[in-house]
Design a protein that fits this description.
The chain is α/β, with parallel strands linked by helices. The protein is built from seven helices and ten strands. The termini are far apart.
Length: about 220
């Protein structure tokens, strides 16, 4: 396949481009798109073939779970996870932003969720109208991509579409926090790790400094 490479304004994404990318996701295609941390590789969670291709193209071990990306609080409430008080406090402060939380489900399994703050990501997730998982858009073991060119280095002509909005603002992956554990446990240190640790240790969140990637207004 030949990867379509579309440029999009990072602050005011063209609705027609977002609509096209969302259509690709609904059809079972794979779409690389920017978040505030790194570029993610989106796939429709409800399409088993798309998920299989995602793992194969990334060369990702099948035992590694993928994170559901959401655009609003309603999607969290309808995802089937058990939202604990600590999870609600964390998401109230750090979402949208580079925090991935792992929550328990009623069947005993867990699910990782993240609400990115990048306008392109949010527009695509809203338009897709299907649940979208989006691990980093690179082959397993390689550095997560901060630019569209780095996505193409690993995945050119292996994915359907690439939305190019320039370099990602943060440039490192989100912090992954297992809130299903007691006490909560950081599984991957990333953006906001220090602020999250402060929250867990002190039970409160200090005001975000100027330029922080914490919760958007």
């Amino acid at each position: 396949m030949r990867t379509r490479h579309l440029t999009v304004d990072p602050e005011r994404p063209d609705p027609s481009v977002i609509h096209e990318a969302a259509s690709v996701l609904r059809r079972g295609g794979l779409v690389a798109f920017p978040t505030e941390t790194v570029y993610g590789l989106g796939a429709n969670l409800e399409d088993p073939q798309a998920i299989q291709e995602l793992y194969q193209i990334k060369e990702r071990p099948f035992e590694k779970q993928v994170t559901l990306h959401i655009a609003d609080r309603q999607a969290l409430e309808s995802s089937g996870v058990l939202v604990s008080p600590i999870a609600r406090k964390l998401t109230d402060h750090f979402w949208p932003g580079p925090l991935t939380i792992v929550l328990a489900r009623s069947d005993g399994s867990t699910l990782g969720l993240r609400m990115p703050s990048h306008p392109v990501a949010l527009a695509l997730l809203r338009e897709a109208k299907v649940p979208v998982v989006a691990p980093s858009a690179n082959r397993h073991g390689n550095p997560p991509p901060q630019t569209a060119q780095e996505v193409l280095r690993d995945l050119a002509d292996r994915i359907d579409l690439l939305l190019d909005a320039g370099p990602t603002p943060v440039g490192i992956e989100s912090t992954v926090l297992d809130v299903a554990a007691d006490p909560p446990k950081i599984l991957r240190r990333g953006a906001l790790a220090g602020e999250i640790e402060n929250f867990l240790k002190r039970g409160r969140v200090d005001p975000a400094p100027s330029g922080s990637t914490g919760r958007a207004p």
